[in-house]
Specification:
The chain has about 130 residues and is an alpha+beta fold. The chain is about 35% helix and about 20% strand. The chain is globular, with a radius of gyration of 17 Å. This is PiggyBac transposable element-derived protein 4-like. It comes from Trichonephila clavata.
Length: about 130
Amino acid sequence: MGINLFCEILRFLKLDLKSTRYRWLKADIFGMIFDVSNRFTENCISCFKPRENITIDEHLLPSKTRCPFTQLIPSNAEKYGQTFWLAADLKTKCLLNTFPYLGRSEELPSDQCLSEYVVIQMMYIHTTIF
């Protein structure tokens, strides 16, 4: 890729303004890339109708960035990164839904375990299949 094409692409990848960054981080720690992530997830949800077998798992995306939700998982080859919950169709391996794990959530009811909460959140959009 040439430098001119790279600069042209980089011009459109602006994710935030320095003047609004502090306000975003106080409201939502995932706020800087929330719009991009949300559009991607909406496309995944709208473009595919799931079959009866769905798998949900967490995935560590390796990264050495400094952000409040960076995870350390010593058992992985890449020890540091951001953890995302992913729901995928088992047969076609198409991504159905995703959201980041941002640490302990206030939305999690005290009588519900994390795995149950994640499954309910992932399948909330696809409730027509049940």
